[in-house]
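R.M. (postdoc): so does anyone remember the format we settled on? I'll just put the C-alpha cells first.
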C-alpha cells in the first residue's frame, strides 16, 4: 500500500506542481483544481479510519505523502489537513471537507473555551502564525476548558484575520478570538498532550517536508553541475564542487533517515525523542543544504524565474515552525542531563524519557 501511495502522489505532484502554479499561488491564487485532485485521491484522509471514510494508514505509511509535498514545494496545506483530520478522527468528530488548519500556540497562552447559556462554547484569546489561516475552511486548536486541555474545531467564517506570510509566501496569519462560537469542545485525543502534542506532530510533518525538499534540491544541484560548463568543462568535474555535492547528499540522507524514523515511531513510547531528533537534524541540515545548492547554481539560482528558491525559501521557513532547532535540541539536552542512565545506553537503546513541556 505504501508503494502505491508513494507512486500516486509523486506522479500527481510531478505533473501538476509547475513553476507557473507555484507563482500563481504566491500571488494569492488558490490552486483549487489540484486540491480537488488531492481530495479525490484520498490523500487528505489517509490517516482517518476506514469506517470514517479514510484509508486507515499509519503515520509510517503516510511518510511518502508528506515528503513528496516538501519535495515538490506543494503550495497547499496537505500535511496540515492530514494532521487535523487525524486528530478529529481520534477525538470522535466528523472530518469536514476542504482544507484544514492546525494551530501551534507554542509557548503562548492557550485560548479559553467558556460555555454559553444558549448552548455551545465561546472561544477567547489570540493565535498567531497560523499555517494557511485565511485559506482553510476549519481550524483545529487546543483550548483551555474547565482546567483541562480540549480540542476545538473552529469554522473559518467571519473571523478577522491579520494577514502575514513566511519567506515562502505561504500564509501565516493571526486572528483574535473574541467570543467566537463553536458547537462543541472535546477532551484532547492524544494522551492528554494537548497543544504540545500538536507541536510534536507538526514538527514531524515539517521534518518530512524538509527532507523531501532537500532530496529534490540535491537532485537539481547534481544535474546542474553536469550541465554548467566553466573553463571548458562541466563544473561537476571540479573536485571542490564534487566535495560540496557530497556534503549536500549526506545532509539530505541524514534528514530523510531521521524523518522517516520519526514517522515509524510516531505511535510508540519513543515518539517524542525520535521526532525531536528529526526536527533538530532536518532544521540544522536545511541551512547547510540551501547554501551548497545556491552556491552550486551560482547567480541563476537566486532569480525568481528559477525553481530552486521555491525549495530554499521553504526550508528557511519550515525549520523555525513547530519548534526550531534550538528549542528541540534543548529538550533533548535537558533529558540527557536529568537521566541517570549512561549516555551510550540512551543513544543505543532509545530509552531517553523526553518531555516537551
Amino acid at each position: 500500500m505504501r508503494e502505491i501511495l508513494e507512486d500516486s502522489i509523486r506522479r500527481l505532484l510531478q505533473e501538476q506542481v509547475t513553476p507557473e502554479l507555484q507563482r500563481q499561488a504566491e500571488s494569492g491564487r488558490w490552486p483549487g483544481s489540484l486540491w480537488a485532485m488531492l481530495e479525490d485521491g484520498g490523500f487528505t484522509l489517509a490517516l482517518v479510519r476506514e469506517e470514517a471514510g479514510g484509508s486507515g494508514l499509519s503515520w509510517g505509511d503516510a511518510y511518502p505523502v508528506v515528503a513528496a509535498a516538501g519535495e515538490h514545494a506543494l503550495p497547499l496545506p496537505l500535511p496540515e489537513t492530514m494532521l487535523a483530520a487525524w486528530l478529529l478522527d481520534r477525538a470522535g468528530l466528523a472530518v469536514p471537507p476542504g482544507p484544514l488548519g492546525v494551530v501551534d500556540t507554542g509557548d503562548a497562552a492557550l485560548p479559553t473555551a467558556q460555555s454559553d447559556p444558549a448552548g455551545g462554547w465561546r472561544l477567547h484569546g489570540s493565535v498567531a502564525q497560523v499555517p494557511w489561516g485565511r485559506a482553510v475552511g476549519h481550524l483545529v486548536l487546543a483550548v483551555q476548558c474547565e482546567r483541562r486541555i480540549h480540542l476545538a474545531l473552529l469554522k473559518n467564517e467571519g473571523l478577522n484575520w491579520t494577514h502575514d506570510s513566511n519567506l515562502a509566501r505561504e500564509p501565516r496569519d493571526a486572528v483574535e478570538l473574541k467570543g467566537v462560537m463553536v458547537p462543541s469542545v472535546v477532551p484532547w485525543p492524544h494522551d492528554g498532550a494537548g497543544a504540545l502534542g500538536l507541536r510534536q506532530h507538526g514538527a514531524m510533518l515539517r521534518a518530512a517536508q524538509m527532507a523531501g525538499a532537500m532530496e529534490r534540491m540535491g537532485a537539481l544541484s547534481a544535474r546542474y553541475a553536469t550541465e554548467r560548463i566553466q573553463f571548458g568543462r562541466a563544473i561537476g568535474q571540479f573536485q571542490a564542487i564534487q566535495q560540496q555535492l557530497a556534503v549536500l547528499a549526506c545532509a539530505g540522507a541524514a534528514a530523510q533517515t531521521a524523518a522517516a524514523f520519526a514517522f515509524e515511531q510516531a505511535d510508540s513510547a519513543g515518539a517524542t525523542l525520535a521526532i525531536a531528533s528529526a526536527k533538530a537534524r532536518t532544521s540544522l541540515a536545511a541551512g547547510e543544504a540551501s547554501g551548497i545548492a545556491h552556491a552550486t547554481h551560482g547567480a541563476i539560482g537566486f532569480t525568481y524565474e528559477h525553481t530552486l528558491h521555491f525549495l530554499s525559501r521553504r526550508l528557511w521557513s519550515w525549520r523555525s515552525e513547530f519548534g526550531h532547532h534550538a528549542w528541540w535540541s534543548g529538550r533533548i539536552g535537558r533529558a540527557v542531563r536529568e537521566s541517570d542512565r549512561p549516555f551510550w545506553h540512551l543513544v543505543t537503546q532509545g530509552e531517553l524519557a523526553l518531555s516537551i513541556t
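R.M.: ...and that's the designed sequence above, right after the C-alpha cells. Also worth knowing: Residues 194-349 form a domain with the Butyryl-CoA Dehydrogenase, subunit A; domain 3 fold (CATH 1.20.140.10). The radius of gyration is 21 Å.
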